[in-house]
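Form 7-S
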Amino acid sequence: MKSIAINIKYLKEWRNKIYKKHVKKHDEVFEKMYAEHMEYHDKHAHLHRGHHKHHNKEFHQFQRYLKWLRPVTFLIPIAVIYLIFHFIGVKVITIFIAVIFGANQIIHLLILLSLEKRIIKPIEKLQKGVEQISSGNYEVRIENDIFNEIGILIHEFNDMAEKLQNSEEEKQEYEENRKALIANISHDLKTPITSVSGYIEVILDGVVTSPEKINSYLKIVESNMNYMNKLIDDLFLFSKLDMQKLEFKFEVVKIKSFMSDLMEEFKFTLGEENIIFNFHDKIEEEVLVNIDGKRIYQAIRNIIGNAVKYGVVDNLNIQTELIKEDNFIKINIKDNGPGIEKDKLPHIFNRFYRVDMERTKDLMSTGLGLAIAREMVEAHGGSIHVYSVLNEGSTFVIRLPIMNS
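Output:
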C-alpha cells in the first residue's frame, strides 16, 4: 500500500508539472488576448451586431473547453488508475499511464494548434500590417479566413487601410491639380500681358504716330485687358466653388416660368448676332425645383457661350428643351457646331481644357466655363453630361432634382 501511495503521489506531482508547464501558460495568454480584443470589440460593436452573437459564442467555447479540461484531464486518469489497480493490478498501470500521457499531450497539441491558427497567427499578421501602415504603405491588406473577434478586427483593419489609401490618392491628385492650375494660370496670363506690354511700349516710344494705328493698338490692349479680367473673375469664382465657399441663395422656383423668361432673354441676345435660337417646353404641368436662379443662369450661359465660340460661322442653330424624366428635370442644349472628338469628350469639363487650342487663342477662352458650369450644377445635387458627333454638333444635358411634393 505504501508503494501505491508513492505512485499516486508521483502521478499527482507529474500531472501538476505538466499542467503548470502547458495549460496554465496558454490559459494566461489566451485570457489576456481575449480581454484585449473584447475591449476593442465593444468599441465597434455597433458595426457588427448581426455577427456578434455567433462570434462571441464561438470564442467562449474555447474558454469553456479550457475551464473543464483542467479538472477532467486530472480526475479521469486518477479514477481510471484506481479502477485498474483495484480490478486488474499494478502491472497494467504503467501502460495506462503512457496512454493517458500520450492522449493528454495530443489534446494539448490540438488546442495549441487551434489557438495558433485562430488567434496567434492573425495577431502577428495584424502587427505586420500596422507596421506597414506606419511606414506609409497604405496598400497593405490582410487575408482573412477566420470568423471570430480577431476576424472582425482584421476586416476593420482592411477598411481603415483602404480609407487611408483613398485619402492619400485624393491628396496626391489635389496636389497635382494645384500645380497644373498654377502652371495654366501662368501660361494664360503671360501671353496677354506680353501683348499689352509690347503695344504700350511701341506707342510710348513714338514708333507709331498714325492716330488710326494707335487706336488699333489700343483696341488690342483693351481686348487683352478684358480677357485678363475675365480670367481673374473665372478663377475667383472657380476657387470659391472648389473650396465650397461660394454662397448660394436657394429658393423654390417654378421651372417652366423660370426657363421661359431665361430663354426669352437668350433668344433676343443671340438673335442680334444672327444666331437661330429656339426653346421647346415639353413639360405639361408646372414643376417645382429648389435652385439658385443666378447660378443656374451662369451654368446655362457658359454652355451656350461655348456653343457660340466653337460654332459654325454661318447658320449657327442652338435648340434648348425642357423635359421631365422621373424625379428630375432635364435641360438639353443642342447645337449644330463642329462637334467634339470622342477622345476629347471625357476632358471637356476639366479646368483649362480646350478642345481646339489654336482656335481658342483668338476667342480668348479662359478654359474654365464648362468646369464652372459643372460645379454649379453639381452644387444643386444635379449632373451635367455631353453627347457629341463630329461634324454634326453637340448636346449638353443638365439634370436637376425635382422637389418632393
